[in-house]
Design brief:
Elements (H helix, E strand, L loop, with lengths): L2 H5 L31 E2 L2 E7 L6 E5 L2 H10 L14 E10 L6 E8 L2 E7 L12 E10 L8 E4 L14 E3 L15 E3 L10 E2 L11 E4 L11 E4 L2 E5 L13 E7 L6 E5 L4 E6 L8
Length: 286
């Protein structure tokens, strides 16, 4: 099963320049219309859009931090105003499959965890396996925050392997009116990073028991994208996979499937996963 298939998550008004009940991307068409709440118990929506990166969270406690958070989330225009005496700002970098928009229904606080309540309307089991970003930036009332320190995630479950930036650690309490945290006190959880993955290059073998990093180099002689040779073979996207949109020089994470000599592997970029298959020995471009 593709990693993105494992990762897909299971928010009414105009926010951040979008039409009511609709989200748009500067590089693509609008998703199916969904009614997005603009406020709920202890939170209000500051802005949202099909921007930023998926599986991310972030926090702001000052205007400067909010400016940086807004840019990281990829939102246009100026940030909405936050009442720092009574609120902090939180970014949820949610994920959705093409044609299957995600909605933010609320913000949940349980013990030392704050997370989003995210919903995939319609038929989520029929959604494709690609992982696209949907940024939600919200103001959260200080009187609903955990005492601190606390942490922020997309959901109650732990972040998926390879996504340590989904969990943001807040090393101080922020319930006091106007209290702030430094950038150093707002950080990803280092315990989720895991050991560094080795970097392989063309001509190398692939380990059968762990992921590796690989820098993709486009071959202008091939109409179909190929990787390698790796593990003695060239590799191409399997039939029916999403269009290959990896730019030359992009670092991918490769996950061999099935141990040494496996006929398939997954190539993962920050946005999408592809299933790759071996070309027959000695074959060049497909």
């Amino acid at each position: 099963m593709l990693l993105a298939g494992l990762l897909l998550l299971g928010g009414c008004g105009s926010v951040g320049g979008t039409e009511p009940g609709r989200s748009t991307s500067p590089s693509g068409p609008a998703t199916a219309a969904v009614e997005q709440p603009t406020a709920g118990e202890g939170w209000r929506l500051l802005g949202e859009g099909l921007t930023g990166e998926p599986y991310r969270t972030g926090v702001a406690t000052t205007d400067d931090q909010l400016d940086a958070l807004w840019r990281t989330a990829g939102l246009d225009d100026d940030p909405a105003e936050v009442d720092w005496e009574r609120e902090i700002a939180v970014w949820f970098g949610a994920v959705y499959g093409s044609g299957c928009p995600v909605r933010l229904d609320g913000v949940v606080v349980a013990d030392d965890l704050l997370h989003a309540e995210l919903t995939l309307p319609g038929e989520p089991d029929a959604c494709p396996d690609d992982a696209n970003p949907h940024a939600f930036v919200v103001a959260v009332a200080r009187d609903v925050l955990p005492d601190g320190p606390f942490h922020i995630q997309l959901e109650a479950r732990d972040p998926y392997p390879g996504e340590p930036e989904e969990r943001t650690l807040v090393d101080v309490g922020l319930t006091a009116p106007g209290s702030t945290a430094t950038v150093e006190q707002l950080r990803p959880d280092p315990a989720l990073a895991g050991p560094a993955e080795p970097l392989v290059a063309d001509g190398d073998d692939l380990p059968g028991d762990r992921a590796v990093r690989y820098v993709y180099r486009a071959d202008p002689a091939c109409d179909t994208p190929v990787l390698g040779p790796l593990d003695g073979s060239l590799w191409r996207p399997a039939d029916g996979e999403a269009p290959w949109d990896v730019a030359d020089g992009t670092e991918l994470t490769l996950y061999p499937l099935g141990g040494e000599g496996a006929p398939e592997m997954v190539a993962s970029s920050p946005q999408t996963d592809w299933l790759l298959v071996r070309l027959d020995e000695g074959h060049g471009c497909p």
